[in-house]
Design a protein that fits this description.
By secondary structure, the chain is an alpha/beta fold. Helices cover about 45% and strands about 15% of the residues. β10 (about 240-245), α7 (about 250-265) and β11 form a beta-alpha-beta unit. It binds 5'-O-(N-(L-cysteinyl)-sulfamoyl)adenosine and zinc ion.
Length: about 400
Amino acid sequence: MHAWPASDVPALPGKGRDLRIHDTATGGRVTVDPGPVARIYVCGITPYDATHLGHAATYNAFDLVQRVWLDTKRQIQYVQNVTDIDDPLLERAARDGEDWTGLAERETALFREDMTALRMLPPQHYIGAVEAIPGIVPLVERLCDSGAAYVLEGDVYFSVEADPHFGEVSGLDTEAMRLLSAERGGDPERPGKKNPLDPMLWMAAREGEPAWDGGSLGRGRPGWHIECVAIALDHLGMGFDIQGGGSDLAFPHHEMGASHAQALTGEYPFAKAYVHAGMVGLDGAKMSKSKGNLVFVSTLRREGVDPAAIRLSLLAHHYRADWEWTDQVLEAAVARLGRWRAAVSRPDGPAASSVVDEVREALADDLDAPAALAAVDRWAALQESTGGTDEGAPGVVSRTVDALLGVAL
Ligand code: 5CA
Ligand code: ZN
């Protein structure tokens, strides 16, 4: 699949900082030490509805990771998937009497437009589940051959006991895992499974549903977790730097993905850090396609909201916090954007080097975007109250905000 165009990232004076970020698996801050090429996998959308602000907030967090890395002059291998075949997509298409492929293509196209408008840097590899199927089948066959997978009435399951590290990503106890598994696409109640938590790797063809050639597995379609594992191993290999997504992916998705990969390769770990963004809510509940309490990026854009203001709304919250979208959040961002634009529109102003330092330091410190905004706010307030004589300072601030926060002033 093609991704979307990249916006320019201006180079900044001085030196970028190494990223320290919260890792779900260890529960603490880790210093990411990626070497010359940083490798990141971020789980992509299931394209059965438009991009809402919760999605945008999560992709914003990982866009900041890229910007911190680019500032340290690193190259990046960024991989993102599109879950373009899964139950929710088929259910929505059936509900609306629409072809599921058309629905997936339309919503993926809209996602690309939203990401472009928000100046999110694109992945180098943007891969759909359907196009990954030829790579998924041999992995599932290998898991069967090694005894890490088993067949139940034609469906293939992964045995969580096959990975001695199972449970280390989320750190949850069995009861909590069971509850989340039932909530998030698993089937812990299905009779005949070796362990109720075992997730499906390959689903045998169902009447009236799309199916693909699965070699010795028979016709069917892939499970959710193996999709991301196959794509990540293909383009990044084991031990990549960051596996990212919203906090609702820590279990089961990232837990199961790590175990699939570790059982397949005998290597550990799948990813060096598991990074999770908080959930954005609306009216007291997590924004979700299944609940329907959504504010879409595309709707705001159509209403004439500046994408830079949408982005500033996201940046005003720490990526790990759960927060609520309200009209006031957007109003505050529009006002901030106005103040910043006025402040950088003059040819000179207060010295800007401390702003560059403070924004760099804030983002390197577990992506503390609110602290970064506060640094720019202080400079803009000084510009408004006393001004300054540093020629070109507004340009430096403008480039800093562009390069590190993805906001064009
Ligand atoms: N296709 C899978 C991942 S392989 C999937 O979870 N798709 S999704 O469309 O449901 O979500 C895409 C990303 O947005 C995931 O990282 C998910 O954790 C995140 N996300 C979904 N809802 C919210 C929300 N309300 N707030 C923040 N992030 C969210
Ligand atoms: Zn995923």
